[in-house]
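Researcher: I've been going back and forth with a colleague about how L,D-transpeptidase ErfK/SrfK might be arranged in three dimensions. Neither of us has a model we trust, so I'd like an independent prediction. The organism is Bradyrhizobium ivorense, in case that matters for your notes. Sequence below.
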Amino acid sequence: MFNSSKLNSRLAAAAFGALAIGAVAFSNSAAAAPLPMFPFLLTPPTETAPPPVQSMPQAQDDEGSFQLPARLRRQVVAYPTREAPGTIIIDTPHTYLYLVLGNGQAMRYGIGIGRDGFTWSGTQTITKKAEWPDWTPPPEMIARQPYLPRHMAGGPGNPLGARAMYLGGTIYRIHGTNMPETIGTRVSSGCLRLTNEDVTDLYSRVSVGTKVIVLPMTDRRADLGATIR
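Model: Here is an independent structure prediction for L,D-transpeptidase ErfK/SrfK. You can compare it with whatever you and your colleague have in mind.
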């Protein structure tokens, strides 16, 4: 006769044995690599990575993204004049700056000049030179444009650009620009602007005391600067 009580006893014994083996295996594994019951409480927090160090902005290459028209590029030209070598002559109507070299020649630069109503003429001297100058808009400019900053530190974003040469006791300067596309146009409040590359070149060629002649807008004489080929 089939004894069900014996079968049940055997099944219960087998099940208990399997459970015991599993418990031993789990115990051995836990001993090798214990697992925390509450990892979100026991695991130390991961440190947040420090923010990246901000490097100082670099000056942009004027000619890298914008090419000046050929006539406005720096070049040696024939330029007959009685002015001494080293003199700067501003040809306002043609938007040129000439640095007299002597022997009937001059270095010619394209420039941006004052907009309508803001051109001027006369003779000044360079009284100060500055690299990457700060910009403090004069009161007259702030009165016209009250949204302007009262002061801006020098750098690539400064509207005075890479170099500035101050003219006498006036508010006018020969300076660089971070907007090379304005060379050859009439947009300033009276200052004379060159590309940063060109103003750096001019800066290296002149000194404090240099004579600067600014021709009037009404002087419509023909452009005397013929390119030397």
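Researcher: What would you highlight for our discussion?
Model: I'd start with this: The longest helix spans residues 4-32. After that, consider the following. The helical segments are 4-32, 39-42, 62-65, 139-144, 196-205.
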